[in-house]
Amino acid sequence: MSADTAAPAALTADAAVVGAGPAGLAAALELARAGLDVLLLDEQAEPGGQYYRRPGPEVLDAVGDHRPEGGRLVARVRAAGVRVLSGHTVWGVDDDRRTLLAASPGGAAVRVRARWVVAATGAYERSVPFPGWQLPGVVTPGLAQHMSAEGVRLGRRAVVAGSGPFLLPVACALLERGVRVVAVAEAGRPYTPGPASLGALRFPARLAELASYAARLARHGVRVHQDTVVARAHGADRVEAVTLTRFSDPERVVARHGVDLLCVGYGFRPQADLPRLLGCAVDRDPATGDTVPRLTPTGRSSVPHVYVVGEAAGAAGAPTALARGRAAALDILASSGRAPDRGERRRLAVHLASLAGFTRLTAALYPAPAELVPALARRLPGPTLVCRCECVTADAVRAAAAAEGGSDVPAVKGGTRAGMGLCQARECGPALEALRAGGPGTGTVPARVPLRPLPLAAVLELADTPGEDV
Ligand SMILES: Cc1cc2nc3c(=O)[nH]c(=O)nc-3n(C[C@H](O)[C@H](O)[C@H](O)COP(=O)(O)OP(=O)(O)OC[C@H]3O[C@@H](n4cnc5c(N)ncnc54)[C@H](O)[C@@H]3O)c2cc1C
């Protein structure tokens, strides 16, 4: 754990940045360099977030650093004077809708008041239930990627499935760890040439990266099935096999593979709970179905002192996260009278626009989650567990959704306890939203305090930790 983890109970700063991934690090660096007092809080033991995930010293010694540029960025952030609070989970917002409530690594209560709040909380992996998804040996691609990077071999024989460009590098990372990847199953048809894929020619570096993954998979004899999804994972005590079917024709079996590792995920969805608690207006993204904060191009939310950056603003990859973090910081500096270089802001805007072009291309090539997730949820067999924490089946959710008032997601949660367990709907949220009846009412899982499980002592202690005005 970092040395700089101990924090007094009430903290103030010019800017509080929540999340030390690429977006939060970039924002914090820019703000601190301009002379602002910046607090950077992250629940992980080390700063870096998902992309620059910093393994502990033993792992670094054993397998090396697969993204050393992340370590260099963290070092620059520290050198700029940012107060880094690792192991600090922001779990809520006080009644003033301004003071952040956090818990230290030891579970002590910490209040944070800042003139600006930058939410850089990243993304969740998008999971969709299927029969057998609760079996040991079934994991998300992000977890498989992280464990592989840390030298852990999660299985001997794997299938990687779901949708999105992330599946290919994950399959390659597994191969590097000596896992025999028998197949990649992609729900869409992104690798079949068509009018949309012509757009890829405008991004030669990305095309070359894709080609290198494809070549590695081909060398290892990995089949890439398109229009294919996981219908069922089989096994008694852990996953032993997987049945893959056509996405466009669920009755058609594509293959059944014996595996001891199944990695399934449908991309990423923004982690926007903190901005919602801070009162930021949100919209439903028509393409992804995700709840996203309403933002200016520089990440300013409807609450003027709150900015949302990186994947929390919409999944778009690490380079965009870095650029969004900087853009928000420059905007904050401009509004605080420390006018940053105009040319710099213009260059950043152009860079962001070019990155947005690639995000649009990706969205055009892979199936839109707003259609994919409900289609998968509709075909779920009744006894499939949707909420693994509270053991609620698809049939139970459907019955609650069909009852009076069932178009309301909170009513479905209340009637079934789905989404009310330890993970607070982080896993089953998209499926719950997709299974509801539609119609009036709240169609999204609400953001609720606490954002993470925390010791009761951290809440009780709050009464003794008065906030300070900023
Ligand atoms: C599991 C997973 C694995 C991924 N692996 C890759 C990969 O290998 N390659 C790739 O290109 N992309 C990967 N991504 C996508 C990745 O999120 C982005 O490319 C990039 O890391 C986004 O940067 P960010 O700063 O927006 O968010 P992140 O890097 O996700 O950083 C967000 C940080 O916020 C912290 N945080 C969130 N909520 C709180 C809270 N309430 N209190 C305190 N701290 C909080 C998190 O601990 C995290 O460190 C992965 C995503 C996930 C979810």
UniProtKB/TrEMBL annotation:
<feature type="domain" description="FAD/NAD(P)-binding">
    <location>
        <begin position="14"/>
        <end position="322"/>
    </location>
</feature>
<dbReference type="InterPro" id="IPR007419">
    <property type="entry name" value="BFD-like_2Fe2S-bd_dom"/>
</dbReference>
<feature type="domain" description="BFD-like [2Fe-2S]-binding">
    <location>
        <begin position="385"/>
        <end position="435"/>
    </location>
</feature>
<dbReference type="Pfam" id="PF04324">
    <property type="entry name" value="Fer2_BFD"/>
</dbReference>
<protein>
    <submittedName>
        <fullName>FAD-dependent oxidoreductase</fullName>
    </submittedName>
</protein>
<dbReference type="InterPro" id="IPR023753">
    <property type="entry name" value="FAD/NAD-binding_dom"/>
</dbReference>
<dbReference type="InterPro" id="IPR041854">
    <property type="entry name" value="BFD-like_2Fe2S-bd_dom_sf"/>
</dbReference>
<dbReference type="InterPro" id="IPR051691">
    <property type="entry name" value="Metab_Enz_Cyan_OpOx_G3PDH"/>
</dbReference>
<keyword id="KW-0560">Oxidoreductase</keyword>
<dbReference type="InterPro" id="IPR036188">
    <property type="entry name" value="FAD/NAD-bd_sf"/>
</dbReference>
<dbReference type="InterPro" id="IPR017224">
    <property type="entry name" value="Opine_Oxase_asu/HCN_bsu"/>
</dbReference>
<dbReference type="Pfam" id="PF07992">
    <property type="entry name" value="Pyr_redox_2"/>
</dbReference>
